[in-house]
Amino acid sequence: MDVKGEFARLERENPGKSIAAYLDPAGSSTEAPTRATLYYHVSTNDSVPAAAHVLDSLEDRRVVYTNLASDHWLTTYMSSQLAHMQNPAGRNELRLWQRNSVDWTVERSARAPGMALRVGGRFLGDAEGPIAGGGLGAVAKEVAARSALADAGGGREKALERALRYYALAAYAVISRARHHSTMLGNYVGAILVSDSGRILAWGFNSTSFHHAEVNLMLAYFLAKPGETKLPANSVVFSSLTPCKQCATLLESARGTTNSIFYGQFDSGDFGKAGAATSAKIDDVTKPVSVGGKPARTFVAGTLDTEVAKQNIAQNIGKSEAAKTLIDRTLDEIGRRSSKDRKLADEEQTVKSAVLKHIKETLDAIAI
Prior knowledge:
By secondary structure, the chain is of the alpha/beta class. The protein is 36% helix and 17% strand. The protein contains 12 helices and 15 strands. The chain has helices at 3-13, 50-57, 75-78, 136-144, 155-181, 213-224, 245-254, 282-285, 300-307, 313-316, 321-338, 347-365, and strands at 19-24, 35-42, 64-66, 82-84, 95-96, 99-100, 105-111, 121-123, 190-194, 200-205, 236-241, 260-265, 280-281, 290-291, 298-299. The strands form 4 sheets. It has a 6-stranded mixed beta sheet, with helices on both faces. Strands 4-3-1-2-7 form a 5-stranded mixed beta sheet, sandwiched between helices. Strands 5-6 form a two-stranded antiparallel sheet. Strand 14 and strand 15 (298-299) form a beta hairpin. The protein is elongated and about 75 Å long. The relative contact order is 0.13. Residues 93-100 have low confidence and may be disordered.
């Protein structure tokens, strides 16, 4: 049987499931092999495509056959390696290294061995967070809808708005943790997912290929939540950089009406700036995220803009020593603010103190 026919059989046996496969001619019965084994993987998690497992597990760039739609988020950067079997156009869409796959005969099919995702991120659990009674999601929606810079007046609402900036700072601090403790860090981008009660549910950093920070964040969350296809109600995503086309597509597919997305630095690249249409630059809608106190306060996103070229920002941040130093300072800043004496009889200060303590403890405990 040829690849198309064998893949169709797998789809019939696994209706509605995400399937990915690749050919391996090793052990073929001929010296100039035209026969191969079709190794396949079927995902049991609707939010984690089988093709992601296969792409991560292969050590070469052979074609991966998939039943993902051609506009799926994974195709944004991996389209040259994916052959879409839903509506194959013929030989050009069934190509394989060395020859067209339509020329191969599938001798046998077998489940692919060693399928494992290399995710630069973790799910941290979903117990109640530091904000008693919640409310972060509603404030985030209100802030994200602004058309200009503003700031809440006082009390609990002001504390929750200030908390948004603390979490935005934490997204940068994830990069710092990865920079010093991981060999997987690619471009210098970090992201976190925060619940309505302020708990950091998951974090992710860019670990190259299609594993951008937001993708790793989402994969970490959905791997821990099989069966879930949407973000938790009223949860908020914070990314250090504008979500690119791939990440924006994934985020939008999982986003509900109560979710908000904020980013720190604007990426001016064609793919990079795609997420600006569906997320809010936090410095544009509330006071800018900063490190250090007066008079030496440094605004993180604006300062990073001066340190790296405006094109390919994601790739250039890690090349600037000044930018890397500033990112490291975000972790120190969270520690500085969390140790500050506050009048805990004041509701605003109580919320701020609880949020900062949670962020610091979470970042300190990150195991990368």
